[in-house]
Specification:
By secondary structure, the protein is an alpha+beta fold. Strands 1-2 form a two-stranded parallel sheet. The chain is flat. The model has no long low-confidence stretch (mean pLDDT 84).
Length: 42
C-alpha cells in the first residue's frame, strides 16, 4: 500500500522566532491520532 503524503509550501514572511512559534503550534496539533499513517511535510 502506498503511503499518503500531505505537503505544504508557502513563503513565510516572519521572523525566526515567529516561524518557530508556528512550527511548535503545528507540532502540538499534528499528533499521531490526527495524522495516523499520513506523512506531513511542511
Amino acid at each position: 500500500m502506498r503511503r499518503r503524503i500531505v505537503a505544504g509550501n508557502w513563503k513565510m514572511n516572519t521572523t525566526f522566532h515567529e516561524a518557530m512559534e508556528l512550527v511548535e503550534g503545528l507540532k502540538s496539533v499534528l499528533t499521531e491520532e490526527v495524522v495516523g499513517e499520513t506523512g506531513v511535510i511542511i
